């Protein structure tokens, strides 16, 4: 019963100020609702107790009923809503992208939800925009504004240990401000049903010191080095994959995930398959079985040896 109280997706194990306030708000709501439930249940049992009933006039009955309607039907819900708003509104307001009092600049990260993967952009990176997929790196100890949208249907951006979720709506950009208190890896998940593989739309989130974050961005400024040993695999990629996928210095496809640093990621298919030797070739052969309905076509026209070579080359794409 307590499995949800910890782990990388638990709102009850906060790792940021916004998530901590949300957790305390949740605990307060739970305590208040528990008291209300206990009192109402006790009164309900008392009303149906056995024994002789007290004789009352119709006017007395009306007066008692009026008290219950006003107290239980108006005052109690009204008080509950006022208390919830009094504590909840400030919690939500602190996740808005409001100007900071000291004029501090806030890191901007753009996240786009696709069926069923994540596109992540760093438009303000020194040296030029950085693009990656299904992984999100952020500096620790400072606020970050996440500008989120959807590419096809409504998705939702949610890092439970850092704060509340926000909808990703096609044609609209929503912004949420989150901050990580300490370095670490956090699980993230699409929190709005977006199709058959909604549950398999996961995001790797990692918070790191500012210097490490800047170094991570700098590593991705230059295209990955290419070896002549994989020329045949690159030719295969250009012929069959380049129209959808981008690899810096090789192709500019925009339909599928950016693969420029795929060899440095922890998983494939937005968390569906762990990254290890041979994993990409396995994904290329079985991706429709691993993640049915994804928009990448099957590769039945390519033999196993070609797919193995293609996967081996993609695994070398690491800064």
Oligomeric description of these chains: single chain
Molecular shape: elongated
Please list the strands of the largest sheet in the order they lie side by side: 3-2-1-5-8
Uncertain parts: none
- Order of SSEs, N→C? HHEEEEEEEEEEHHEEEEHH
End-to-end C-alpha gap:
43 Å
Structural class: alpha+beta
How many E-type strands?
Answer: 14
Cα-atom Rg, whole angstroms?
A: 26 Å
- Helix residue percentage: 25-40%
Report the portion of residues in β strands: 15-25%
Individual helix count: 6
- Give the biggest beta sheet: 5 strands, mixed
Mean pLDDT: 88
Enzyme class: translocase
Keywords: Copper, Electron transport, Heme, Iron, Membrane, Metal-binding, Respiratory chain, Translocase, Transmembrane, Transmembrane helix, Transport
Function: Subunits I and II form the functional core of the enzyme complex. Electrons originating in cytochrome c are transferred via heme a and Cu(A) to the binuclear center formed by heme a3 and Cu(B).
InterPro entries: CcO_II, CcO_II-like_C, Copper_CuA, Cupredoxin, CuRO_CcO_Caa3_II, Cyt_c-like_dom, Cyt_c-like_dom_sf, Cyt_c_oxidase_su2
């Amino acid at each position: 019963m307590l499995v949800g109280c910890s782990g990388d997706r638990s709102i009850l194990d906060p790792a940021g100020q916004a998530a901590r306030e949300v957790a305390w708000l949740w605990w307060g709501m739970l305590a208040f609702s528990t008291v209300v439930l206990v009192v109402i249940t006790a009164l309900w049992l008392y009303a149906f107790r056995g024994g002789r009933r007290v004789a009352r006039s119709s006017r007395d009955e009306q007066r008692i009923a009026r008290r219950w309607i006003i107290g239980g039907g108006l005052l109690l819900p009204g008080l509950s809503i006022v208390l919830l708003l009094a504590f909840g509104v400030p919690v939500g307001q602190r996740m808005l992208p409001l100007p900071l009092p000291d004029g501090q600049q806030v890191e901007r990260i753009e996240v786009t939800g696709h069926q069923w993967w994540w596109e992540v952009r760093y438009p303000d990176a020194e040296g030029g925009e950085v693009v990656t997929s299904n992984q999100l790196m952020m500096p620790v100890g400072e606020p970050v504004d996440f500008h989120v949208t959807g590419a096809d249907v409504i998705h939702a951006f949610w890092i439970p240990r850092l704060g509340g979720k926000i909808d990703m709506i096609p044609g609209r950009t929503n912004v949420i401000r989150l901050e990580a208190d300490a370095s670490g890896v956090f699980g993230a998940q699409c929190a709005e049903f977006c199709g058959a593989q909604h549950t398999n739309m996961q995001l790797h989130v990692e918070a790191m010191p500012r210097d490490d974050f800047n170094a991570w961005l700098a590593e991705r400024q230059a295209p990955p080095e290419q070896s002549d040993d994989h020329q045949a695999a690159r030719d295969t990629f250009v012929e069959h994959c380049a129209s959808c996928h981008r690899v810096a210095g090789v192709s500019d496809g925009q339909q599928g995930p950016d693969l420029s640093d795929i060899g440095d990621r922890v998983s494939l298919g937005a968390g569906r398959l762990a990254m290890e030797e041979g994993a990409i070739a396995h994904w290329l052969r079985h991706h429709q079985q691993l993640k049915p309905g994804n928009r990448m076509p099957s590769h039945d026209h390519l033999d196993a040896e070609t797919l193995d070579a293609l996967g081996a080359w993609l695994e070398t794409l690491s800064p």
